[in-house]
Fold:
Amino acid sequence: MAHAAHAETAYVPPAEVPDVELYHPKTFLGKYIWCQDAKVIAIQYAITATAIGLVALVLSWLMRLQLGFPESFSFIDESSYYQFITMHGMIMVIYLLTALFLGGFGNYLIPLMVGARDMVFPYVNMLSYWVYLAAVLVLVASFFAPGGPTGAGWTLYPPQAILQGTPGSGWGIILMLASLALFIIGFTMGGLNYVVTVLQARTRGMTLLRMPLTVWGIFVATILALLAFPALFVGSVMMMLDRLLGTSFFMPAIVEMGERLQYNGGSPLLFQHLFWFFGHPEVYIVALPAFGIVSDLISTHARRNIFGYRMMVWAIVAIGGLSFIVWAHHMYVSGMNPYFGFFFATTTLIIAVPTALKVYNWVLTLWRGNIHLTLPMLFSLAFIITFVNGGITGLFLGNVVVDVPLSDTMFVVAHFHMVMGVAPILVIFGAIYHWYPLITGRMLNEAMGRFHFWVTFLGAYAIYLPMHYLGFLGVPRRYYEMGETMFVPESAHFLNAGMSVVALIVGFAQMVFLFNLAWSAFKGREAGRNPWRATTLEWQTHESPPGHGNWGPALPVVYRWAYAYGVPGAAQDFVPQNLPPDRVATAADVDHEGVRGVAVQPAE
Amino acid sequence: MVVALILVLVAVGSVAFHLLSPWWWTPIASNWSYIDHTIIITFWITGVVFVAIILFMAYCVFRYRYRKDRRAEYEPENKKMEWWLTGLTSVGVAAMLAPGLFVWNQFVSVPEDAAKIEVVGEQWQWSFRYPGKDGVLGTTDPRNITPENPFGLNPNDPKGQDDVLVQGPEARLPLDKPVKVLLRAKDVLHDFYVPQFRAKMDLVPGMITYFWITPTRTGTFDVLCAELCGLGHHVMRGKVVVEPESEFQAWLQEQPTFAQSLARAGTGTPDINLASSEGGSEPLERLLK
Amino acid sequence: MPAPAMSPGARPRRSRVRVSRVLAVVVAGLLGGAAEASAHVSGSAAAAPGLIYLIVVGATIVLSLIAGAYFIGQTLTEKPWLPVPGKVVHLHDGRASSLPSATLGLRVFLAVVAVVFSLLVAAYAERMAFPDWRPLPEPWLLWPNTAVLILSSIALQWARVSARRGQDEGAKLGLLAGGVFAFAFLAGQLLAWQQLRATGYFAAANPANSFFYLITALHGLHLLGGLVAWGLTTAKLWRGVEVFRVQASVELCAVYWHFLLVVWVVLFGLLLIT
Structure:
């Protein structure tokens, strides 16, 4: 039906690329350290993000130990507890998730998936990583600075963040703000690359609507990040001036511990507006790449075209756009003018519609599919469950009046961990199981993978589902210990202890995963070409794993969209994007031979 | 098969946990039962969707599991179905939003006859001010704050002279009377949070924020701080006692007015209410060491 | 379905007109709505104008995204699974616009910078609404500085035109003059700071001062960054590299300069009316 070959498309001459030599590294250092190849930069980003993410994971254990077993650990005092939660949140959201999705997956997949040799500005791309690394090092330095890292909460709300009553209000907050500014500068360099590469460097035949949803998700998320991070940048600079020069951007007249400070006339709410003007799009900066990637995982492993592709693209764009006019739903009880609640509640709940549509389409892709329960598929299923759960509690918190009793309680903590912690990280895991063979040429160990999956998914669910109910009870977030109250029953402490134990077990499963990553790189089963029988271009490269310059002598030519699974009349249940139309009905060998080279044969 | 079964168990287990677990909201003590109703509506709508999606997923995983001889159906999109789903979702969202906005309209409309109480937060304790006989709170300014005038009242404002100052962590409210709670912070953000009242709001230095409630049940309730305010965030506690009007008035009479406390400070008498805050002072001292 | 036969130039122009009209209508509607909302809630504790402005910034971003989606992809309604005529495959070279990548990159970057300054303006507007706002006297030096910055922009435009025509001398002269004027502007800004400080208007003294120093400093830093690119380009030209090889860089410098001039005029105007 869909692939009647037109005679005139039988052969399309590949695009000429005379400067392919440019992409070849000249030295060892040039190949692995000062590297301009997006794929190597991606690995650098991924390793750095994982390393700092491990720090945040350990912090979460310490935090859980304190919450589950208060007064049992003398080395966790109030000050270190608040430093743990702050650093855990900041690292996870920005230095791990944002960096890994955009810097890691973006760098690796964008050029390969759109059929480019590399990012359009490889040198700037390299700089982007090194600035990011500097940002991470400055962040790490704050752990060793006098007074330790900041304990202001990841939202860094002034006046508290820069006053004496908060741990790390000396060097900690200064280094934190400096690190954020560096991160934003580094990200902007990378972000320009991702956007311009998608717009300008696609290969012949790769129209925008033939791009895999992974690229769409990362592309729109990058635009969001480019436009949202400036708000955090401006806020950080202004707070830095307040801290260092004594200006009063965010600082009103304050009497701290009976002493009148020099500040006068600033507005703490202004910072909150700036922070969330960045902070809410940030949620989608993390979520949109996850949406995109999971769409591709589900489609590939269910052997079915993604259901409603165009709706999926439009939904990504719509969600991205709307995310700029919902930020103040984080501020319903901040003391801002309450009439804005009407506006922001409405826009917030409207976002639920395109988001729900995406969920339906994922599930409808499974429907009438031919589902392989591979690890990427399992992680995708788990993603849908946790994302639906977290999205639903978002409807609670977005509806202004429901937010009033629940905001600042453990309900919020449970909500955002489910929706932007667990769900995207499950996608990251699924994506790693999916693309690891492409990167290393070997499969990850299946047994370890299944152990990792079940412990992580069921464990994380068992931590965060009950946590909502602590919020209903009224347990506030960011409490070092609950202490005596008249409304929290004894059994809640038992619940807390249980969640802590599960958290430690889930943490252990991540060690198994890391071991698997290292072990399989040498001992894993050889993957062969295109082990998942996927249609997208990254699996159809000249050499496998793809080398510098990605495509050998000539770029691939794209003949169809990325979701030609189960096409009637085709020899295989998938048709790679670059398989010429005249071979669709006969190319039964594509899973063994791949279609590498098909599009690059000289015209004779 | 196993995977599909586990998916079903997750859905059923979540609902069972919701229905059977002992952890639920603490009984309400204010007029904001509307909020609870909105939450229940939201629970129903979202719960049905949640269960439906997971069960459908489990069905697909089982029914369309991999078979060598099967090929997935090639169906790029189904406009009609997607429009239907969009429409139904919009209806569901509207069904949650409409009551939410309706109740929010009540939340932001403070009754004309509401009594006033001012809550003042500082690291890490609460204090309270009542308007006194004239029913008007006197003006304040952080510049006026001194050890003798911890509330920072304007000494020249006649309306402030009769304001009743409660420096301890215990406030009292009359039963069944709407009250507008005005919130003021001296140093950093705080949040006046009484779980049983359902309502809460941040205290922001440099601003006066507010919300209103009508206490509907007598008793003593915990006041917590719900906005991270530094090391002592979790020990910033207080109490609210809701009691019948007559008892409330009797209690209010015993509290010093601004004029009285200034006079006392002048004669060197220590502020009478400091004693009541002693309970919370031990951890504070430890934090500040 | 896309219209592949159309010439590449025709489509964007037509859509730009349409998009701008739509944008104008929607922005006007939003501003009207916002003004109404602010009138409705005026007198309440929270300062609204800044927030309204922030909403407008957000809404503008939303609209730009929509407009962008429309602009880059009338193809966004294509049904990618349908067989398409081979011609499309031949014609489509994977580029969404005919601009050089560097130019597009610069434009995206300028959008980011524009957001930075818009947010500063939003913050400024929010702060101005407070009754204790005490504006600072603009140093008279800002007037000649503005003139110098305009001259700098003109010189770079001259360099740009010369480079396009392949005139080596003109490009060199224009670049040199543009750079000298830019440095003069920066020196002038520093002097203006000096003037202010001499009369006691320190950065921390009151919010208007803080904003003035912050805004001028950020603008100056952006210009300084531009001067790095300018230095590289000029050095190349001086080393004897042929003018057509640096033409693209000259173009980028000129665009960047014009952008910073516009930003400065807006910021200066804002400082003046307050």
About this structure: Strands of chain A lie at 255-256, 259-260.
